Amino acid sequence: MNWDPRRLAMLQEMGLTAWAPRDAAPGEAPAQEPAAEAPTAPLAAPVAVPVAALARRPGGVDQMDWPALREAVAHCTACKLCSGRRNTVFGVGNERADWMIVGEAPGEQEDLKGEPFVGQAGKLLDNMLRAVGLTRGDAPPERQVFIANVLKCRPPHNRNPEPEEVAQCEPFLKRQVELVRPRIILAMGRFAVQSLLQTNDAIGKLRGRLHQYHGVPVVVTYHPAYLLRNLPDKAKGWEDLCLALQTLEGR
Ligand code: URA
User: Fold this and answer.
1) Cα(9) to centroid of ligand 1, in Å?
2) Please, are residues 38 and 204 in contact by the beta-carbon 8 Å criterion?
3) Of the residues 14, 19, 39, 203, which has the maximum number of CB atoms within 10 A of its CB?
């Protein structure tokens, strides 16, 4: 890793210093899993999706191209979240991106703009991405990421996604991954991790090694909103980003 001035500035933006030894990063949080992230909520037991609801999600999602998928998400009424949304939040970035970032669900700002991660957590995410030479803005596929959420509609009052909502939305995310064909997925936060990896394990237990989603390597990391509340853990977010970077460089 080259510590050029721009990258150093970005690390500073993240509250990190480049010279900190890995095993004693400044403000390193205690080894114990932070309360906000653990224990994880029970993994949704397989959800029986009501037949009436299924009728409202178009069939054949697994065959759709980008325009059809966008259209299907925009008009989806498969769960109750459709009644409160101002916009669906499909995703943003390069449709052939090497990197895919998966978050949880739109919040208020995202619902207003129809774009993922545009609030405070999004600013931190953009800074983290910039620190490793990535962007959501126009760039070639090796530099421009694709960002999507598990849920495409905002849960009211930013409550946690419900199992049925996750189950209804899951085919959309799966198809997005199939179409993007990323070389790496960064799963941010517990709902992204639960949905992609089908595990109940805490993020702290899953970090630091590679997982797989339909053949794509997955790196697990904390949600940027969590990092904003737990500043010392930003160092761990940086480590996770470096693991993803090294994974790609080694391929
Ligand atoms: N948090 C998420 O997980 N996704 C967003 O789009 C915004 C906040």
Assistant:
1) 25
2) yes
3) 203
Rounded distance between C-alpha atoms, residue 131 and residue 232, angstroms? 18
The DSSP letter of residue 144 is: B
119-162 confidence digits (pLDDT tens): 999 999 999 999 999 999 999 999 999 999 999 999 999 999 99
**Could you tell me how far CA 31 lies from the centroid of its own chain?**
24
Task: Give the span between the Cα atoms of 125 and 133, in whole angstroms.
Answer: 12
Answer yes or no: is the C-beta of 151 below 6 A from any ligand 1 atom.
no
For residues 48 and 209, the model is more confident at 209
- How far away, in angstroms, is 49 Cα from ligand 1 center? 24
Burial (0-12, 13-18, 19+ Cβ within 10 Å), 157: exposed
Kindly report the protein residue whose alpha carbon is nearest to atom 7 of ligand 1.
117
Q: Is 176 helix (H, G, I), strand (E, B) or coil?
A: helix
Distance 18 CA to ligand 1 centre (A): 27
Atom of ligand 1 at shortest distance to CA of 189?
3
CATH architecture of 65-249: 3-Layer(aba) Sandwich (3.40)
